């Protein structure tokens, strides 16, 4: 879920606007949680990882 659609129970404003301290704290917490295992990788690194996985798969297929 993205925080741009959440409504704060404290001030009834969208959390993405950060009008009150509760909104700002929730927005900060959600921004830190939205990373994932691959969130820090650049698109070039993701493509390189995909190519490496395909290469390993082809090598394993040839050996079997």
Give the helix tally.
2
**H/E order of the elements?**
HH
Instruction: State the total count of DSSP E strands.
Output: 0
Low-confidence stretches: none
| Structural class computed from helices and strand pairing | mainly alpha
Residues in β-strands, percent: under 5%
**Integer-rounded radius of gyration:** 20 Å
Query: N-to-C terminal Cα separation, in Å?
Result: 43 Å
Number of domains: 2
What global shape is seen? Answer: rod-shaped
Largest sheet: none
Overall mean pLDDT stands at: 83
Helix content: 40-55%
Structure description:
There is one protein chain. The chain has 64 residues and is an all-alpha fold. The chain has helices at residues 21-33, 43-63. The chain folds into two domains: 1-33, no CATH class; 37-64. The N and C termini lie far apart (43 Å). It is rod-shaped and about 60 Å long. The longest helix has 21 residues, at 43-63. The chain has two helices and no strands.
């Amino acid at each position: 879920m993205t925080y741009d659609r959440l409504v704060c129970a404290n001030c009834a404003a969208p959390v993405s606007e950060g009008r009150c301290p509760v909104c700002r704290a929730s927005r900060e917490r959600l921004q830190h949680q939205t990373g994932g295992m691959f969130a820090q990788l650049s698109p070039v690194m993701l493509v390189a990882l995909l190519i490496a996985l395909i290469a390993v798969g082809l090598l394993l297929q040839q050996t079997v």
